[in-house]
Amino acid sequence: MLGTVRTSRLAAALGFVVMVAGPLGCGPTTESGEPTQGWMPPLVPAPADEVAVDLVVARKVWEPSKGDLLVFPVSSRFPIEPKLPPPYRELWPGFQTLNVQPSALPDLAGQLDRLTMLTLQDAARVEGRGVGSEAFTAAFPKAGAVLSLSRTAFSPDGTLALVYGGYSCGGLCGNGSYYELAHTAEGWIVIDTITVWVS
Q: Is the overall model pTM greater than 0.85, yes or no?
């Protein structure tokens, strides 16, 4: 199924509070009392850290109960351009440049238990084989999920990041999403997710 679905961690976490408190004047609003669009937590500049961003995405999508996670570079072009809000829209040209062709990802090995990094050549053994299929299980007996990641585009000051992740844990278990992240005092957090495919 193709389409665009927007989900927001902030909206999910605060949805009830905003719904109840909004009319009372609580939460970020414009001068006219309308809810502020694109509200962001306080940002903290940081050096571009692709490993940290990739780990945030892996932790967000992966359920360890499904088995080991295989991570590899996205090997195809991005057919769907997401409808990015400012300021993430400004990251799109850099994202496209970084991802013109598949390239090696930073090594996440040892950063997360039960995560295995695959090279582009190893990834070819995964693509086209469903997680849990006989061919997949023969090649990767402990794996229960795969995550293909793009390279990450960062804002010049290192406060914002944009990355694509395609996750699959079986025939009707997976999605492809763009992750909008921000660097706060607590580290990198997912501000919004734009899902472009679901299975």
A: no
